[in-house]
Amino acid sequence: MRKPFIAGNWKMNLDSSGAVQLAAEIVKHSSAFQGIDIAICPPAVYLLAVGGELENSAVALGAQNMYFESSGAFTGEISGPMLRDVGCRYVILGHSERRHILGETDAEINRKIDAALAVDLNPILCVGELLEEREAGETEAVVEKQLSGSLQGISASQMSSVTIAYEPVWAIGTGKVATPEQAQEVHADLRRMIRDCYNAETADAVRIQYGGSVKPSNAANLLSQPDVDGALVGGASLNIEDFLGILAEAT
Ligand code: PGA
What phi and psi, each to the nearest 5 degrees, are found at residue 198? Predict the structure, then answer.
């Protein structure tokens, strides 16, 4: 039985007081949501302040990215040990905005996953196809390439710390959500790929979140699919009523 996992990806939004306020509101209501894992991923500059609000709560802190080296002359980058130092348990890696706007490759994402696992950070690995790739019937091939490229050299036992997020790029921030059937089809494909690469036990245990325009109104149908184990929520995680509404649907 996989425990549902809802994570809020705040992206490059909010200011310091807005971030702290939103975190405090989520913590205040979090005890109502039993039996699910909850994480929020604020911008890196607010991790410490938001982490302070999350102390002694069931809400975990996550980062949106990291570099694969642990320290040194890498101006502007943030390392896994630094994320651990400020209390992060999770790190989103390979988000489509990083792949497509910032040019991140599977090979770089693979090094980041390896570096995250080395310091006991739990990666949330994002995969997903562009609209033209879906229309060309390439969805399965695209996510398979992203998945295998990003997980190169990662062992079955390490996979117990990895969450996968299926995020069709055409659904992110567009209001155009995948149908529950579309999501389920790709989630089942991803689980089969994990089974083929590793084993049935690893595939049965790995959590696969859906991401892309998740809202309270569509969360229940998506989360009711057998291979959808949670959600990675962007826009709706910035609005307290919407985020609490999604948590309620997952509970
Ligand atoms: P969205 O973003 O919920 O705003 O579509 C999801 C994500 O990018 O993680």
Answer: -115, -100
The residue whose CA has the least distance to atom 9 of ligand 1 is: 234
Cβ of 124 below 6 Å from ligand 1 = no
Beta strands in 176-215 (DSSP E): 207-211
Which atom number of ligand 1 is nearest to the Cα of residue 165?
A: 9
Which pLDDT tens digit goes with each residue over 7-54?
999 999 999 999 999 999 999 999 999 999 999 999 999 999 999 999
Residue of the CA atom closest to atom 7 of ligand 1: 234
Could you give the residue numbers annotated as active site? Answer: 95, 167
How far, in Å, is the centroid of ligand 1 from the Cα of 77?
23
pLDDT tens-digit profile of 119-169?
999 999 999 999 999 999 999 999 999 999 999 999 999 999 999 999 999
- Residue 83 confidence (pLDDT): 98
Cα–ligand 1 centroid distance for 167 (angstroms): 8
Backbone angle region of 137, left / alpha / beta, with phi > 0 → left and psi within -120 to 50 → alpha: left
Contact 80, 58 (CB under 8 A): no
Quote the strand ranges of 111-204, DSSP E. Answer: 122-127, 163-166
- For residue 125, give the 3-state DSSP assignment: strand
Read off the pLDDT of residues 70-111 as tens digits, 9 standing for 90 and up. Answer: 999 999 999 999 999 999 999 999 999 999 999 999 999 999
The number of the ligand 1 atom at minimal distance from the alpha carbon of 212 is 5
- The torsion of the CA quartet 42, 218, 124, 241, rounded to 10 degrees, works out to 20
| CB of 62 closer than 6 angstroms to any ligand 1 atom | no
What is the pTM for the complete model shown? Answer: 0.97
